[in-house]
């Protein structure tokens, strides 16, 4: 059996009286591509925030490579090998494509804005190499000197992925990467995510595009109202009565 890279144990996050994530336990094995789905407000982004240290847990634990990372700051978690993208793009529009990616290469993602930007502008050889390699991987080398604001929306999504890849992660967490993309862009993205996994990267993916999740993920975790209601391969999740019920009446 492949060792668990990430273990989530009864993760809970309350916001006042609302339990956004309610005692969710799951694990991700090294090299797996796992989807996280659920109706709007199910707690998907909050769970990603708990894993990546952007939101503290109310209770429960997160372990990465057997190490308890509960309570670590997001940039510390980033340095341990967990990188993420965001539902709402966090590209710095007035910086170049290259500088945006350098923020990842310096491990500055998750630091306050000004420290992150300062990090992105520190161009040591190693950082430049990492940044260029990440841009190459997503096909944006030719745009390295362009302002991020001038990239088409679909390309900005790849820029965000490049910034995460520049951190040299072992676990990549993608929050709604296909949102706003058209059908052919989504198909291209699906193939790209699959290729990352084929290269050995472990990937967790929150996505509303069910076809994308079902076609590329090996396992799908389903949340509804903060609770885990399914955790199985796509075929089983598709037929799961609890999942069908959770989605009933919800326009996905
Ligand atoms: N910072 C916060 N303060 C208060 N409530 C929050 C906060 N973040 C999330 N919530 C609430 O927690 C619940 C889960 O939100 P979350 O964004 O994790 O859901 P989601 O499954 O990612 O939804 P969507 O698919 O719409 O992005 C929602 O009811 C949301 O309003």
Could you name the ranges where pLDDT drops below 50 across 5 or more consecutive residues?
A: none
Query: How many DSSP E strands?
Result: 10
Percent of residues in helices? 25-40%
CATH architectural name of the domain at 1-81 and 173-179 and 204-252: 3-Layer(aba) Sandwich
User: What is the topology, as strand order, of the major beta sheet?
Assistant: 6-7-8-3-9-10
Distance between the termini: 35 Å
Q: SSE order, as H and E? A: EEEHEEHEHHHHEHEHEEHH
Roughly how many Å is the radius of gyration?
18 Å
Query: Could you name the CATH topology of the domain at 1-81 and 173-179 and 204-252?
Result: Rossmann fold
CATH homologous superfamily heading of the domain at 1-81 and 173-179 and 204-252: P-loop containing nucleotide triphosphate hydrolases
What hetero molecules are bound to the protein chains?
A: adenosine-5'-triphosphate
CATH C-level of the domain at 1-81 and 173-179 and 204-252: Alpha Beta
Protein name: ATP-binding cassette domain-containing protein
InterPro entries: AAA+_ATPase (IPR003593), ABC_AA/LPS_Transport (IPR051120), ABC_transporter-like_ATP-bd (IPR003439), BCA_ABC_TP_C (IPR032823), P-loop_NTPase (IPR027417)
GO molecular function: ATP binding; ATP hydrolysis activity
Organism: Roseospira navarrensis
List the helices and strands and how they pair.
Elements: E1 4-15, E2 18-29, E3 33-37, H1 44-52, E4 59-64, E5 67-68, H2 74-80, E6 82-84, H3 97-105, H4 113-120, H5 125-138, H6 153-165, E7 171-175, H7 183-198, E8 202-206, H8 210-216, E9 219-224, E10 227-232, H9 234-239, H10 241-247
Parallel strand pairs: 3-8, 3-9, 6-7, 7-8
Antiparallel strand pairs: 1-2, 1-4, 4-5, 9-10
Helix pairs in contact: 3-4, 3-5, 3-6, 5-6
The protein binds adenosine-5'-triphosphate.
The site of adenosine-5'-triphosphate has 11 residues, from β2 and α1.
């Amino acid at each position: 059996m492949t060792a668990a890279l990430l273990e989530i144990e009864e993760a809970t996050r309350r916001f006042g009286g609302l339990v956004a994530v309610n005692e969710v336990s799951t694990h991700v094995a090294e090299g797996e591509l796992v989807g996280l789905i659920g109706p709007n407000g199910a707690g998907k982004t909050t769970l990603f925030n708990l894993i990546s240290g952007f939101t503290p847990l109310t209770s429960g634990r997160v372990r990465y490579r057997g190490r308890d990372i509960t309570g670590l700051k997001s940039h510390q978690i980033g340095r341990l090998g967990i990188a993420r993208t965001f539902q709402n793009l966090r590209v710095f529009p007035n910086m170049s494509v290259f500088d945006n990616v350098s923020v990842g290469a310096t491990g500055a993602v998750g630091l306050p804005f000004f420290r992150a930007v300062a990090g992105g502008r520190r161009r040591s050889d190693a950082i430049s190499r990492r940044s260029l390699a990440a841009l190459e991987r997503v096909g944006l080398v030719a745009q390295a000197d362009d302002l991020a604001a001038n990239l088409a929306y679909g390309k900005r999504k790849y820029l965000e992925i490049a910034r995460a890849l520049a951190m040299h992660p072992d676990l990549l967490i993608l929050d709604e990467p296909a949102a706003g993309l058209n059908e052919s862009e989504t198909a291209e993205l699906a193939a790209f995510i699959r290729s990352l996994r084929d290269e050995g990267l472990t990937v967790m993916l929150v996505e509303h595009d069910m076809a994308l999740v079902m076609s590329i993920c090996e396992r799908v975790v389903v949340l509804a109202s903060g609770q885990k209601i399914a955790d199985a391969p796509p075929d089983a999740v598709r037929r799961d009565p609890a999942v069908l019920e959770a989605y009933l009446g919800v326009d996905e």
